[in-house]
């Protein structure tokens, strides 16, 4: 029988621990494919903090560092500055990057650290029990907002790409989604482009935000979670490229 599809080598052949319908497995594969296509596996270092993202080292066959909650950009800064020829990326969830790690990502972007950030936005704290995150939508029910998020008391969803787009040190910002095959294909291109910029020594930070399903914490079925991204998340987190250093150089 003719082989038409193979697992990319950087994506380990191991059972998943993620919940059914979780988007992390898709994101891991896209990262692994980008690394293999660019031939950078042997000089890539990944950094994963606390949250569902923390176990990325179980699936990506590259050197990985586990760090404290929110501190991935700070550690990535040190790794890149001391190993400028290595490819350094962080893999972070929204409860991590957009909550306890907000200062780290803003200042890393403001300094123009030459790192790549993969940002998983599922609008909730997943690992710790489904609490409200900075990215939780208005009216969204969570463990800590049983009546729905009330913007008058807790504010609006934090839009990371828009926030970082005004900083000159952030050179590539794109938001994609993992709910449809076509959108997943776009996400793959964005992740590869973010790594390419670092490979080519572009002068700043790249971040790809991925709207990702979390059926367990959202308390819906996996198919309904995909529809929820389309019907709800994208209204508050519009897809697209917010900044691209390569385009600016043309």
What is the fold's blueprint, element by element?
Blueprint: H1 24-38, E1 44-48, E2 63-66, H2 72-82, E3 87-93, H3 94-100, H4 102-111, E4 116-121, H5 151-154, H6 160-164, E5 170-177, H7 181-199, E6 205-211, H8 215-218, H9 222-236, E7 240-244, H10 245-248
Parallel strand pairs: 1-2, 1-3, 3-4, 4-6, 5-6
Antiparallel strand pairs: 5-7
What is the helix/strand order? HEEHEHHEHHEHEHHEH
Spatial shape:
globular
Helix content: 25-40%
CATH 2nd-level architecture: 3-Layer(aba) Sandwich
Indicate the low-confidence ranges by residue numbers: none
CATH class: Alpha Beta
Strand order of the largest sheet: 2-1-3-4-6-5-7
Rg over C-alpha atoms, rounded to the nearest angstrom: 17 Å
> Number of DSSP helices?
10
> Biggest sheet, in brief?
7 strands, mixed
Q: How much of the polypeptide forms β-strand, as a percent range?
A: 15-25%
Instruction: Name the structural class.
Output: alpha/beta
Distance from first to last alpha carbon: 46 Å
Explain what you see.
It is a single chain. With 250 residues, the protein is an alpha/beta fold. The chain has one domain: 3-Layer(aba) Sandwich (Rossmann fold). The chain has ten helices and seven strands. The chain has a seven-stranded mixed β-sheet, sandwiched between helices. Strand 5, helix 7 and strand 6 form a beta-alpha-beta unit. Helix 3 packs across helix 4. The longest helix is centred in the C-terminal third of the chain and has 19 residues. It is globular, with a radius of gyration of 17 Å. The termini are far apart. The relative contact order is 0.15. The model has no long low-confidence stretch (mean pLDDT 95).
């Amino acid at each position: 029988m003719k082989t038409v599809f193979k697992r990319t080598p950087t994506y380990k052949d191991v059972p998943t621990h993620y919940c059914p319908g979780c988007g992390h497995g898709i994101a891991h594969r896209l990262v692994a494919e980008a690394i293999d296509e660019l031939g950078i596996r042997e000089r890539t270092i990944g950094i994963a903090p606390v949250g569902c993202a923390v176990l990325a080292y179980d699936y990506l066959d590259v050197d990985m560092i586990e760090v404290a909650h929110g501190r991935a950009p700070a550690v990535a800064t040190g790794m890149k500055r001391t190993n400028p020829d290595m490819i350094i990326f962080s893999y972070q969830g929204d409860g991590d990057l957009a909550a306890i790690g907000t200062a780290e990502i803003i200042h890393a972007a403001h300094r123009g650290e030459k790192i790549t950030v993969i940002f998983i936005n599922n609008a909730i704290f997943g690992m710790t029990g489904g609490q409200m995150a900075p990215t939780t939508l208005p009216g969204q029910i969570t463990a800590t907002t049983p009546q729905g998020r009330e913007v008058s008391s807790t504010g609006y969803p934090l839009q990371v790409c828009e926030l970082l787009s005004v900083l000159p040190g952030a050179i590539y910002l794109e938001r994609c989604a993992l709910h449809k095959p076509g959108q997943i294909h776009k996400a793959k291109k964005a992740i590869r482009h973010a790594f390419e910029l670092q490979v080519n020594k572009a002068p700043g930070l790249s971040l790809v935000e991925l709207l990702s399903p979390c059926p367990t914490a959202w308390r819906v079925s996996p198919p309904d979670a995909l529809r929820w991204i389309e019907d709800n998340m994208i209204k508050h987190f519009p897809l697209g490229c917010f900044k691209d250093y390569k385009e600016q150089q043309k």
